Amino acid sequence: MTNPTLLIAQREISTRIRAKSFLISTLATVLIFVAFAYVPKLFEMFSAGDESTTVAVVGQDIAAAIDSASLDGVDVEQEETAQSARAAVADGDAAIAVAVDGTTPVIYYSSDTDQTILSEVTTALTNIAQAQALAHQGVDMAQLQEDVAAASPSLEQVATDAPEVNMMTAIIAFVIGILMFMQLLGYGVTVAQGVVEEKQSRVVEILLSTVTPRQLLIGKVLGIGVVGFIQLAIFLAVAGVAATQSGFIQLDATTASTIALTVAWFIPSYLFYAFAYAGAASLVSRQEDIGQTTNVLTYLITGSYLAAVFAMQDMAAPWVAIVSIIPPFSTVLLPMAASAGVVSIPAVLLATILLLAATVGMSLLGARLYRNSVLRTGARVTLRDALSRAS
């Protein structure tokens, strides 16, 4: 005989995974991740042809001087006279023009000229002029360069105790934080709505004539959780592949382990909130009243997400490593902190133990509330009544 809990879970999975809302939300989120990964690449491709800056010059000496400076994104074009070079800037055919007035170079530019390129051209010409002046004074330029190099300061990076968080790891951590927030809140609310839907339609009375409240609750939580797990795995897989193929990130061992940790971490995190939402929702009999008993849980998830947002300002801050192991904040924060490398393996193990303990406690509390309230219709059941042994 098939286990009733598994039958209930299978019913939840088959019903919800074929629902239009699941398919639409999954597809929409996947498209967002693909766009997030590829749109910057497309902008880069379309703007690649506009990156060069034209510099009009008069005379071979000036052209050779600018070429020798090896300026990035600069195309040098020859002009016959200073007037034609100046006209090229006025007409927009060149961003900068360089001509010689007597013995002094003159740089022409417009209000639209890139100030960075203008500064680089000016610096290049100034350096060349200084070198020529020193050479005229009889200075040995090779020896001067050796002396300057010998006197130049050396750079040495000092390692600090604070973990280093680069931009890429910060972006990965941010995406993981959003995903965990979306999945925990979305599927926690789904559990609550499912409980009240069965209670409001009196279907729960029929179901409880053949199964126990414990079997019905566990089956519903597991079934909805499997759907959420599958959706999260799809999101992470698509995001990882798209970001890797677009060159946005490199799928190395660290990134792969972060994705694996996030998928695994969803299981106890979801169970913690699912049993809490189920127990809280069983206190009411109408969909519009769900918020009265589940708002505190929504605030907890939102608070965890806000803590993650603040953590993004400085993932290496000491408080991030501490708060990320404390339930319920760890449900969102720990995968982020792990992806940024700011928590150690012992800290992850401690966070796992604490979350599992909290999940067991919440499952017992939620099951008690559900068992004592799911058959009570009408007015909202008080928390004191629901916690009593009377059914």
Please explain how this structure is put together.
This protein has a 4-stranded mixed β-sheet with strand order 2-1-3-4, with helices on both faces. The longest helix is centred in the middle third of the chain and has 34 residues, at 167-200. Strand 1, helix 3 and strand 2 form a beta-alpha-beta unit. The mean pLDDT is 84. The relative contact order is 0.11. It has 15 helices and 4 strands. The protein has helices spanning 4-17, 20-46, 60-68, 82-91, 115-136, 141-151, 167-200, 203-207, 213-245, 253-281, 290-313, 318-323, 330-340, 345-373, 383-387; strands at residues 53-58, 74-79, 96-101, 104-109. The chain is of the alpha/beta class.
Overall geometry comes to elongated
Largest sheet, order of strands side by side? Answer: 2-1-3-4
Which value, in Å, is the CA radius of gyration? 33 Å
Order of helices and strands: HHEHEHEEHHHHHHHHHHH
Low-confidence segments:
none
* Content of β-strand: 5-15%
Helix content: 55-70%
Number of strands: 4
Mean pLDDT: 84
Q: How many helices in DSSP terms?
A: 15
Backbone structural class: alpha/beta
